[in-house]
Amino acid sequence: MSKTEQTAPGATPPRTSAVVTGQDAARVAFAAFVGTALEWYDYFLFGTAAALVFNRLYFTTLDPAAATLAAFATFGVGFAARPIGALAFGWLGDRVGRRPALLITVVMIGVATGLIGVLPSYAAIGVAAPLLLVLLRLLQGIAVGGEWGGAVTLAVEHAPPEKRGRYAALPQVGSPVGTLLSSGAFALVLLLPSDTFDSWGWRLPFLAAFPLLAIAVYIRRKVEESPLFDEMLKQDERAKVPALDVFRQAWGRLLVAMASATLGVGGFYLLTTFMISYGADTLGLSRSLMVNGTLVAAVTEIAVILAMGRMAERFGPGRVTVWGGLLTALLAFPVFWLVETKNPVVVVLAMAVGIGALSVAYAVSGALLAELFPARLRYSGVALAYNLAGALTGFLPFLASALLGAFDGASWPVVLLLIGLSLLTALGGFLGERMRVRDNVVTV
């Protein structure tokens, strides 16, 4: 039996300890992983479609370059909406419970994604088409704004403190699995003739969100409430307005958490959403090759995340974050140089190496962010940090495309952007390791 005490500015330690077990932790973390994978599948579909479809079907009155920028801007709208979801579901998760918040988020994103699959194109309903596309993207963003923070919080709070690294990494695996599912779905429909793909083939991955939603709801209903939240509920130690307390009492922690999460969010979309567009539209590579590159990269990411989760338990998630930031900064130029060789094998290898490097920091982001905030503010703190970082970096594919046009197709400004993100994340990891809190938990 082990016991640790919660210590954090503005936090009142519970009078009794919450009890956690390794068996419960594994079951809850797996459920969080499955639900998160299905949610990221829904969310990532939009990114791939923005690079391949939306510019041609929903922004047809614009020239090709402007249409691509408009599609990426719509993609970024989802990130801008995520802090709204963090505020709403953070309040729900810290006041009512982690579990009900996660049930609502999965329904919201599943319905929004499925409806994109039946949305008429610009040719059918005119300007209403891109407006409705933006609305559905907003709903996706609000839902995801509450999803990831809740999944990580629930996994961490069910886990013994000395094993939080591995269990917090499981929801992170949901991201590459979601990438595999979404990219795999698009890889299959891209085998259809071009006219068929544009007509209805691209809709099939979105329509698959409806049956996947049923699976996600079934899984989420079986997840137990956090033992730490149950203890806070018994002792009435919940924050009245959690987000307000985060900004008042833990704003420094919020900034550090945002910095540490920046690479895992923004860098990922530079090397997937933007890279697909860059390879297909600027370098003239096939769309199938670029999508398949994300598939190989996702497999690499899964292996890195699982390994780094264990490393976080030994060295601390902040230190591992520093390693990931520095490694990505060192590899940024080589990754783009390799893609620009246009050799198919080298292009796929470069995408795998780049995403594998930034996954070192992403793997431990859940563990680090959760331990930067006391339990009474955790759902809100984690959700706000992650999604404010997402809001600031969600428009990076748009910015990268604009830089590409401004510098006559040269990639070096985009590479410098990636390096800047990497160094910011390394700084966040360095500071975050020194600010971690401990919970009042008994392991049996």
Major sheet details = 3 strands, mixed
In helices, the fraction of residues equals over 70%
Shape designation: globular
- Determine the mean pLDDT: 86
**Helical segment count:** 20
First-residue to last-residue Cα separation: 5 Å
Question: How are the strands of the biggest sheet laid out side by side?
Answer: 1-3-2
- How much strand? under 5%
Uncertain runs with pLDDT below 50, 5 residues or more? 1-15
Order of helices and strands: EEHHHHHHHHHHHHHHHHHHHHE
Domain Major facilitator superfamily (MFS) profile: 28-437
Keywords: Cell membrane, Membrane, Transmembrane, Transmembrane helix, Transport
Transmembrane segments: 40-59, 65-89, 101-125, 131-156, 177-194, 200-219, 254-277, 289-308, 320-339, 345-370, 382-404, 410-431
Organism: Streptomyces thermoalcalitolerans
Folded structure, characterized:
The chain has a three-stranded mixed sheet. Helix 1 (22-52) runs antiparallel to helix 3 (64-95). The protein has helices at 22-52, 54-57, 64-95, 98-116, 122-125, 128-158, 164-189, 194-201, 203-207, 209-221, 227-235, 242-249, 251-282, 287-315, 317-339, 344-363, 365-370, 378-393, 396-406, 412-433, and strands at residues 2-4, 18-20, 441-443. It has 444 residues and is mainly alpha-helical. Residues 28-437 form the Major facilitator superfamily (MFS) profile domain.
